[in-house]
Amino acid sequence: MTQSPDQFDDEFLMQFIAELHSRSGYDFRHYSLTSIRRRISRILQVQKFSDLSELKTWVYSCSDAEHEFIESLSVPTTSMFRDPEVFKIIRTAVLPMLKHLPLLRVWSAGCSTGEEAYALAIMLDEEGLYDRSRIYVTDINEGFIGRARAGIFPMRLMKEYTTNYMESGGCHDFSSYFETGYDRIVFNGRLKSNMVFAHHNLVSDSSFNEFGLILCRNVLIYFGTPLQGRVLNLLDDSLRVDGYLILGEKESLRMSTIGGGYEQLQRPYKVFRKTAPGLSQT
After folding, report:
1. 8 Å CB contact between 103 and 196
2. At what angle do helices 142-150 and 63-74 cross, to 10 degrees?
3. Where are the domains of the chain?
4. Mean pLDDT for the stretch of residues 252-275
């Protein structure tokens, strides 16, 4: 019988996570313990292991197993134009305020398999901004970056994505942005022409550019409070004054050290405009 999350030895679990960091460089030590326990429980069930000790032995058995474990541990939930109300705010209230920039840099941080980046490219194109934009598409997981770069997604998701697109204010035939083949769709190569795909670890890497728009959605919820603060400071260091930060539905700047430098556009949506330099920038 597979061990349930409430049967985990937390000391053993955290030692395992620390060893994984030393071996691979992937750092989950400050992630929410509840999230880690839930994800590992799912991995135990999928791999049909009985307990953490058996899982650890498998992870250390070969590099492929370690890679598979890291990918399973870091996978977020994603979809195209997820929370279409948020994308509608970006289209109608955010992008018009950024049109004056000669080059609009956008960061999709923790991009997963890239659905968000393609949604942004489509929106920027429809608003006449894509030709002078750069979308930086980053994730901790190299496998996800490869899948994002390919721009290939299951056909079965297109009905949902088309609905989200229309509800977000889309004004064209969504199918014109991709080609179909078998059970897959492939997005037009033109949408990738101004994308930059790169590995970036929000936990340990530093700021690498100044952006007008940053989306880091449904990433912070997997981190403990100290790590959330570290990542928010990184995002703040990367965002220009009068730039915009988009977080996930259950994420917030409340109680953070940077919160005083932002205003929320339309509650309850987590769309924030930076109104003042961060502490490290003053």
Report:
1. no
2. 70
3. 5-74, 84-281
4. 95
Burial class (CB in 10 A: 0-12, 13-18, 19+), 170: buried
- From the list 213, 237, 214, 233, the residue with the least C-alpha distance to 223 is 233
> What are 177-220's pLDDT values in tens digits?
999 988 999 999 999 999 999 999 898 899 999 999 999 998 88
d(CA 81, CA 218) in angstroms, rounded, equals 14
Q: What residues contact residue 231 under an 8 Å CB cut-off, 6+ apart?
A: 202, 203, 216, 219, 220, 223
Length reported for the chain:
282
Tokens 């989200």, located at residue: 164
C-beta atoms surrounding 147 within 10 Å = 17
Angle at 55 between CA 49 and CA 60, to 5 degrees: 145
Domain 84-281, CATH: 3.40.50.150
Q: How far apart are CA 214 and CA 205, in angstroms?
A: 16
User: In whole numbers, what is the pLDDT of the chain averaged over residues?
Assistant: 91
Q: Which has the closest alpha carbon to 244: 262, 257, 221, 266?
A: 262
Cα 30 to Cα 18: distance, rounded to the nearest angstrom: 10
Q: How far apart are CA 148 and CA 137, in angstroms?
A: 8
Could you report the per-residue pLDDT of 133-171, keeping only the tens digit for each? 999 999 988 888 999 999 999 999 999 999 999 999 998
**Secondary structure element (H or E) that encloses residue 234, with its range:** helix 225-238
CA separation for the pair 212, 223 (Å, rounded): 25
Cis status, amide bond into 226, omega within 30 of 0: no
In Å, how far are 103, 185, 205 from 196, measured between CA atoms?
Answer: 14, 21, 17
Q: Return the closest-CA partner of residue 70 out of 186, 199, 228.
A: 199
